[in-house]
Design a protein that fits this description.
Layout (H helix, E strand, L loop, with lengths): L13 E5 L9 H9 L4 E6 L2 E6 H6 L20 E6 L6 E5 L1
Antiparallel strand pairs: 1-5, 2-3, 2-4
Length: 98
């Protein structure tokens, strides 16, 4: 599949400005929150992946369905997050979004 299409829904991807958060960074309102300094960000390790989450999404990570990660119901995503580092001077980035 080409990099121009979403691997989940196969819809076309557009390049847009995003906030650093892996979960909510695609939301245009989060760009305003980033500019206003409303959130702190941290790089975290979950299994073998590294993600950046804002402080709100770190707390909300417990609500993710374990099946989303291909795990059994006993798996708790929030419990398995390991802090790697705080993100200093978070900035707007570019990403693809469907």
């Amino acid at each position: 599949m080409p990099d121009s299409h979403c691997p989940i829904c196969y819809g076309p991807l557009e390049v847009r400005d995003v906030a650093p958060c892996w979960n909510c960074g695609h939301d245009p309102a989060e760009l305003d929150h980033l500019k206003a300094g409303r959130h702190k960000f941290a790089e975290l390790r979950l299994q073998d992946a590294y993600i950046v989450l804002c402080d709100f999404c770190q707390l909300d990570f417990w609500s993710f369905d374990p099946a989303y990660f291909g795990r059994n119901p006993e798996f708790r995503p929030g419990k398995n997050l390991i802090l790697v580092r705080d993100v200093v001077n978070p900035a707007v980035a570019k990403d693809k979004y469907c």
